[in-house]
Amino acid sequence: MNYEKTLELVREHVLSLFKTRADDRLTYHNAAHTQSVVSYAIQIADHYQLNDDDFFAVCAAAWFHDSGYMLDLHNHEDKSIEIAREFFSDHHIKAAVLDRIIACIEATKIPQNPKGLLENILCDADLFHLGTDDFTGKSKQLRQEVEALHNTRIDRAEWRQRNIDLLEGHRYHTDYCRLLLHDRLQENLNKLRNKQQKTASKEQRPVPETQDTPPGFEPAQAEIVNIVNNAPHLKVKKDKKRSKGVETMLRITASNQQRLSNMADSKAHIMISVNSIIISLLLSLLLRKIDEHPNQLIPAIILLGINLVTIVFAILATRPNVTQGTFTGEEVKNRKVNLMFFGNFFKMPFDDYEAGMNDMMNDNNFLYGSMVKDMYSQGVVLGRKYHLLRMSYNVFMYGLVISVVAFVISTLAV
Question: What is the C-alpha separation between 40 and 127, in angstroms, rounded?
Answer without folding.
Answer: 10
